[in-house]
Write a structure and sequence with these properties.
Layout (H helix, E strand, L loop, with lengths): L1 E3 L3 E4 H5 L6 H8 L3 E4 L10 H15 L9 E4 L5 E2 L2 E2 L5 H9 L5 E4 L6 H15 L4 E8 L2 H10 L16 E8 L6 E10 L7 E5 L6 E5 L1 H22 L4 H4 L3 E4 L4 H15 L11 H4 L6 H12 L7 E8 L3 E9 L5
Parallel strand pairs: 4-7, 4-8, 13-14
Antiparallel strand pairs: 1-9, 2-3, 5-6, 8-9, 10-15, 11-12, 14-15
Helix pairs in contact: 3-4, 7-9
Length: 339
Amino acid sequence: MGSSLPSEVVSSEALLKDTPVPVSFFKVATGIHNRRFCGPEPGNATDGLELAVSAAENCLRVSRYEASDIDVVICCSVVRAHKDRLLFEPVTAAIVADAIGAPTALCFDVANACAGMANGLLLLRALIRSGRAKVGMVVSGEQFSLISRTAANEVTGLRDAQMASLTPGDAGMALVVDGLGGPADRVEDVELVTAAGHADLCAGLPSERGPGLAMYASPAQLVDERLRTWPEFYRDHLRERKESFHDQGFTHVIQHQVGTSVVARMNTALRDVFEVNELPPSINTVRDYGNTASTALFLTLHKGLVDGDITPDSKVLLGVFASGMVFGFVSLTLAGVRV
């Protein structure tokens, strides 16, 4: 695993200083104190594509594999930004593959909002299991600050549909995965489901008020639907396999990093559905990084491993949540992971 963060740290005070949003309220509601933003400053990452390439290079530095060993590159960025433009062709994955020295790899992009890297991992796992690939990379470079800057200029109050756009930060993340892991070192399970009836609860599009990208969302409804649906979805999945939550042996739980209060509510809902007294420890990075979109779960996992909060003998449950509305989970054992 490899990550990449911009060097510019933007505090909630700085972001909100010219908005009608009270900083004290925002911090209590989201738990977000800082986030990282791309920018033109010397030494800072300039855009999302640069973050993706940097994360991929950092990942290969700790991997047992060389770039020439990579059979497939899947890029999962929500905002495919490069030099103030949005990229559609060539696919971002091909640009990353060329930059790291994997020009013969199969390349494609996956767009699935904040579930992107989980979706990329699901597809890579299927390619490896089918024999179509031996080694692959899932990568993302998120420049979500584009919508944050728009929101900071346009938000009119606490009920504004761009309020949730004040929570993101920028980050890059990359994973190299092969098919050689044993029981203590593998992607055990990945499942995603889309509840498209709720797709209108969050949408990214050109701003309705001025230049720039914007995201319009109904965060309370999104969270309520996830609280109602996701824990039961995971419970039903385990019931089909005649397994319990206790049987999984999780040592840590990581929820999508939308805000500390939402993470706490999701963990409470999970605990209540499975009727357990206590969940394994929850790892969070949202206080310092904000919501880094498709990279958030794996950035949090990576930081937990680097900091020693998660040990290599751990088993981790990742709770996937994205607009669309998409929810699901990733189950990982980590004995051989390199960070």
